[in-house]
Amino acid sequence: MDIEEKKSLTSSWFKELRDKFCKEFEIIDGTSFERTKWDHKYEGGGEISLMKGDIFEKVGVNISTVSGEFDNDFKSEVKGTEETPNYWASGISLVAHMHSPKIPAFHFNTRFIVTGDSWFGGGGDLTPTIKPHKEIEFFHNCMKEACDSAHPEYYERYKKACDEYFYLPHRSEARGEGGIFIDHLKTDDWKKDFDFIKEVGLSTFQAITTIVRNLKNESWSNQEKELQLVKRGRYVEFNLLWDRGTAFGIKTGGNTDAILMSMPPSAKWS
Amino acid sequence: MDIEEKKSLTSSWFKELRDKFCKEFEIIDGTSFERTKWDHKYEGGGEISLMKGDIFEKVGVNISTVSGEFDNDFKSEVKGTEETPNYWASGISLVAHMHSPKIPAFHFNTRFIVTGDSWFGGGGDLTPTIKPHKEIEFFHNCMKEACDSAHPEYYERYKKACDEYFYLPHRSEARGEGGIFIDHLKTDDWKKDFDFIKEVGLSTFQAITTIVRNLKNESWSNQEKELQLVKRGRYVEFNLLWDRGTAFGIKTGGNTDAILMSMPPSAKWS
Question: What is the number of structural domains in chain A?
Answer without folding.
Answer: 1
